[in-house]
TrEMBL record:
InterPro entries: 4Fe4S_Fe-S-bd (IPR017896), 4Fe4S_Fe_S_CS (IPR017900)
Pfam families, A to Z: Fer4_7 (PF12838)
Keywords, comma-separated and alphabetical: Transferase
Source organism of this protein record: Campylobacter sputorum subsp. sputorum
Identification of the protein by name: CDP-diacylglycerol--serine O-phosphatidyltransferase (Phosphatidylserine synthase)
EC number, as in UniProt: 2.7.8.8
Annotated ranges, domain 4Fe-4S ferredoxin-type: 1-29, 35-71
Stretches for region Disordered: 75-94
Gene, per the UniProt record: yfhL
SUPFAM superfamilies: 4Fe-4S ferredoxins
């Protein structure tokens, strides 16, 4: 993974158009069949080279909805985010 959308997502749609690499799909295209938006980890670049912080999380109105997760090998990731923060429960925007 890279950043991950959690189950408190309200499917508002604010994040999807902010992603510079079209890594986000809406609830109707969620490959896990969940009623939330989804980030494809093999597409997400954590906005490296695009934004100072992940644009999806900046746009999201739901506190703590988007969290850090482990990046996929070969994908850009933010070196300042430590491995222990990539535990699937640390919000990208605090
Ligand atoms: S962190 Fe950036 S690249 Fe990754 S899903 Fe969010 S907006 Fe897209
Ligand atoms: S902006 Fe946040 S709450 Fe809205 S669809 Fe995206 S992840 Fe879900």
């Amino acid at each position: 993974m890279a950043v991950k959308i959690t189950d408190i997502c309200i499917a508002c749609g604010s994040c999807i158009d902010e992603c510079p690499v079209e890594a986000i799909v809406d609830d109707s295209d969620n490959p896990k069949g969940e009623d939330i938006y989804y980030v494809y980890p093999d597409k997400c670049v954590e906005c490296v080279g695009h934004n100072d912080q992940p644009a999806c999380a900046s746009a999201c109105p739901t506190d703590g909805c988007i969290v850090w997760d482990a990046p996929v090998d070969g994908q850009p990731s933010r070196s300042e985010i430590s491995a222990d923060m990539r535990n699937g429960s640390t919000p990208v925007v605090q």
